[in-house]
């Protein structure tokens, strides 16, 4: 669905943005306007997250957001989930009957201890720990992903503090050619579980499972390989046909064959094809344009010093070469 939503008319995207601000900034305050409005808030939040799940957005994060929304519904609203003779439903009805009849036991001193602890903790966070966070939030030089406390109790989360308008991807390619500069060298591509690669592959539904390596590759594309050295570590593992790393990929072009002699990283700019266009008619979900080399061709011997300087175990080829 993300393919079609992305290519929707401009007015639909304006509606999306306004709806997002309404649901996230205004609707949560319905929680304090009585039981019915609290349930309205819960229903809207769940519906909103379902829309995000269908559009393939934030994997398990959407499901985690649904969980606290369930607290907006009272027992009567959720009663249909339990059978009439179920123990849980019977126990809840008995507790409610005791409460209505005024036979609820008086709270003991021990029962008040957690309440005092919670109140003290809230005062600590609101009056002392949150001051630098709010100050940073209102600053024109706001810092993202920063902890303001040695215990990391209060911090700012800003993975999406800014969103790029272009999608760039790092594509791993390998070849059996002894000379990577040979114009006749055949470079074959590795495919990840979900991130864009093969332009003919339909975008997958990223929910609720989270393909963390795919996620990290997206961030690596924002940077250089010097800033994301783990990309070179993966290249070394691919050169040795390492089964652990290959288990995280969807397609290994050298499955059942010799290990590649060289692996390189290519940098591409991706965008969705236009529905109804000639590219879409050919089965292309994506269009891509090469930006340049992300990292140059590397082989096992050439990576030996690189791995040693970082105290990484050097990968060894699992197959003998002729």
UniProtKB/TrEMBL annotation:
Residues 1-78 form the Lipase maturation factor 1/2 N-terminal domain. One of its GO terms (cellular component) is endoplasmic reticulum membrane. It comes from the Eukaryota. The chain crosses the membrane at residues 46-64. InterPro entries: LMF, LMF1/2_C, LMF1/2_N. GO terms for biological process: protein maturation. It is a multi-pass membrane protein. It is found in: Endoplasmic reticulum membrane. Keywords: Endoplasmic reticulum, Membrane, Transmembrane, Transmembrane helix. Belongs to the lipase maturation factor family. Involved in the maturation of specific proteins in the endoplasmic reticulum. This is Lipase maturation factor. It comes from Neolamprologus brichardi (Fairy cichlid).
């Amino acid at each position: 669905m993300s393919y079609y939503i992305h290519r929707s008319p401009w007015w639909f995207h304006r509606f999306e943005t306004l709806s997002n601000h309404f649901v996230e900034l205004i609707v949560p305050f319905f929680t304090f306007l009585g039981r019915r409005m609290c349930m309205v808030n819960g229903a809207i939040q769940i519906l909103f997250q379902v829309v995000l799940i269908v559009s393939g957005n934030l994997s398990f994060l959407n499901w985690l957001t649904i969980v606290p929304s369930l607290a907006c519904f009272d027992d009567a609203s959720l009663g249909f989930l339990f059978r009439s003779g179920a123990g849980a439903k019977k126990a809840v009805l008995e507790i409610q009957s005791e409460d209505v009849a005024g036979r609820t036991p008086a709270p003991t001193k021990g029962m008040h201890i957690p309440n005092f602890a919670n109140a003290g903790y809230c005062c600590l966070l609101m009056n002392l720990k949150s001051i630098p966070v709010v100050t940073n939030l209102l600053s024109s030089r706001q810092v993202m992903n920063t902890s303001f406390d040695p215990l990391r109790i209060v911090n700012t989360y800003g993975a999406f503090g800014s969103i790029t308008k272009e999608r760039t991807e790092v594509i791993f390619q390998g070849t059996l050619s002894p000379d990577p500069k040979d114009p006749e060298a055949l470079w074959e591509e590795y495919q990840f579980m979900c991130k864009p690669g093969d332009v003919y592959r339909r975008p997958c539904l990223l929910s609720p499972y989270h393909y963390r390596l795919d996620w990290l590759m997206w961030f690596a594309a924002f940077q250089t390989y010097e800033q994301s050295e783990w990309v070179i570590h993966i290249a070394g593992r691919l050169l040795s046909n390492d089964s652990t790393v290959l288990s995280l990929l969807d397609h290994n072009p050298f499955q059942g064959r010799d290990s590649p002699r060289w692996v390189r990283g290519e940098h591409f700019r991706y965008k969705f094809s236009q529905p109804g266009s000639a590219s879409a008619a050919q089965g292309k979900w994506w269009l891509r344009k090469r930006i340049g080399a992300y990292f140059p061709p590397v082989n096992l011997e050439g990576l030996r010093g690189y791995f040693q300087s970082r105290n990484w175990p050097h990968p060894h080829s699992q197959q003998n070469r002729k």
